[in-house]
């Protein structure tokens, strides 16, 4: 048999092997010899994607007239929401990161140039107007940004290989700097193109040392290293390929990482770095650029993927944390092209996406979650208002007894029907009338039982 095969010309043998390969591929595609759908035409794949997107809720909705068109920005690398609900946009102005920006040893090629002279942090209000800006003459290639519970702003600069913390009252001089200026490294005190920061409510913080070292580091508030994890090779859950963004799920005790080139979101216990879970989906493709978390409906992950092929769409996606299911998708009408970061409000009603190119930020609003949030506020207000209305009734109950108690019951019923200040005023008048009536009755009984002695 083997002698016969070797006697066949090489090209015939190759053709025979290819035929066997194709037959086996079609027979055993779903068992892993070839992935399911490997031989599908491009149209079949498009239809499959369209069908999958149709099954998802298309929310939150894009706000097309946001922000103000007068606001100019460069490559937008990061977005964050401050404690007043305003959006912070971290952009590169006239600088860009391209193939000539770094050497093959990750050294920035613009050493000797001046830092970006324009404000690199723009502050936008809810209507998309520019209300503040700062960060001029500080940065070279901005990347990640976040705001902690105390209002401190944390940023990373991949050219400087550094992490910065700015307090609310000092925006030109950082309160804390980690890393050595322009010097890439791999130690507790040196980074190589750090990509993101996430800060716990107790002040401990995480740094994603993303592009070269593929690791996560945890520090105490003063910058003392606590622990680190992550390697660049292998197949374990601790292997990262560009940990690009971080988000905290403190209600679950987790820090989650957008592992960009592995196409997953990996979550770890934030106290000791133990791996907990990982999220991915074929529809999102093999590149996940950023992730944000909102503790609503049991927890939701908001994700933006990146361009992989001409077939898979670049969009925003929402994953239900408990079930791991993909439940929502969103994008502007023209779609996304190069999303780089995402942030969501704590109630999930507002989502912002930063794009490197075109240079812009998108706002999305989830009306359902927005209405739920408003309803919670109204219910809180109603509770307070009801307590205010009950006060006159409680006062009557404390003062009166017997017949006064019956009067109090009638007052309470009337207060329940009345609303606002008019109801409260009517209740007070009725309460006084009830007290006066009771007092008159008591006085009358007193005269009858005990006449005055002259």
Automatic annotation (TrEMBL):
Sequence intervals crossing the membrane: 418-437
Positions contributing to a protein binding: 92, 211, 260
Keyword terms: Calcium, Disulfide bond, Glycoprotein, Lyase, Membrane, Metal-binding, Repeat, Signal, Transmembrane, Transmembrane helix, Zinc
Single annotated GO MF: peptidylamidoglycolate lyase activity
Top-level taxon: Eukaryota
GO CC, alphabetical: extracellular region; membrane
Disulfide bonds listed in the record: 192-212, 256-267
Entry-linked Pfam families: NHL
EC code: 4.3.2.5
PROSITE patterns: NHL (PS51125)
Gene Ontology process terms (BP): peptide metabolic process
UniProt: Cu(2+) binding residues: 244
Note accompanying the cofactor annotation: Binds one Zn(2+) ion per subunit.
Residues bound to Zn(2+): 143, 340
Protein name (Swiss-Prot/TrEMBL): peptidylamidoglycolate lyase
């Amino acid at each position: 048999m083997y002698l016969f095969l070797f006697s066949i010309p090489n090209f015939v043998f190759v053709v025979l092997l290819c035929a066997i390969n194709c037959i086996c591929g079609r027979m055993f595609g779903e068992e892993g010899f070839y992935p399911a759908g490997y031989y599908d035409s491009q149209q079949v794949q498009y239809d499959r994607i369209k069908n999958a997107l149709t099954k998802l809720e298309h929310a939150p909705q894009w706000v097309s007239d946001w922000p103000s068109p007068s606001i100019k920005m460069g490559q937008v690398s990061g977005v964050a929401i401050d404690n007043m609900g305003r959006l912070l946009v971290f952009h590169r102005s006239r600088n860009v990161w391209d193939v000539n920006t770094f050497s093959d040893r990750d050294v920035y090629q613009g050493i000797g140039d001046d830092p970006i002279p324009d404000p690199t942090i723009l502050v936008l209000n809810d209507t998309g107007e520019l209300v503040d800006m700062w960060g001029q003459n500080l940065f070279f290639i901005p990347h990640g940004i976040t705001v902690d519970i105390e209002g401190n702003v944390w940023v990373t600069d991949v050219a400087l290989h550094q992490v910065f913390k700015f307090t609310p009252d000092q925006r030109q001089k950082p309160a804390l700097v980690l890393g050595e200026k322009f010097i890439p490294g791999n130690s507790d005190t040196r980074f190589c193109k750090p990509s993101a920061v996430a800060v716990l409510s107790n002040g401990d913080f995480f740094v994603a040392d993303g592009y070269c070292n593929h690791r996560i580091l945890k520090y105490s508030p003063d910058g003392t290293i606590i622990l680190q994890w992550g390697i660049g090779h292998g197949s374990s859950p601790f292997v990262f390929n560009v940990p690009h963004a971080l988000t905290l799920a403190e209600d679950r005790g987790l820090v989650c990482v957008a592992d960009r080139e592995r196409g997953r979101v990996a979550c770890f216990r934030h106290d000791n770095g133990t791996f907990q879970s990982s999220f991915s989906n074929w529809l999102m493709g093999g590149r996940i650029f950023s992730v944000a978390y909102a503790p609503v409906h049991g927890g939701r992950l908001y994700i933006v993927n990146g361009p992989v092929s001409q077939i898979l769409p670049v969009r925003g996606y929402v994953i239900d944390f408990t079930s791991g299911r993909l439940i929502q998708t969103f994008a502007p009408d023209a779609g996304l092209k190069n999303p780089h970061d995402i942030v969501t409000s704590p109630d999930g009603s507002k989502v912002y996406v930063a794009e490197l190119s075109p240079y812009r930020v998108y706002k999305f609003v989830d009306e359902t979650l927005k209405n739920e949030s408003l309803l919670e506020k109204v219910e809180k207000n109603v509770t307070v208002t009801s307590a205010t209305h009950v006060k006159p009734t409680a006062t009557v109950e404390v003062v009166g007894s017997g017949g006064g108690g019956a009067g109090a019951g009638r007052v309470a019923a009337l207060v329940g029907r009345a609303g606002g200040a008019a109801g409260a005023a009517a209740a007070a008048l009725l309460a006084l009338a009830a007290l006066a009536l009771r007092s008159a009755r008591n006085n009358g009984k007193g005269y009858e039982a005990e006449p005055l002695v002259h």
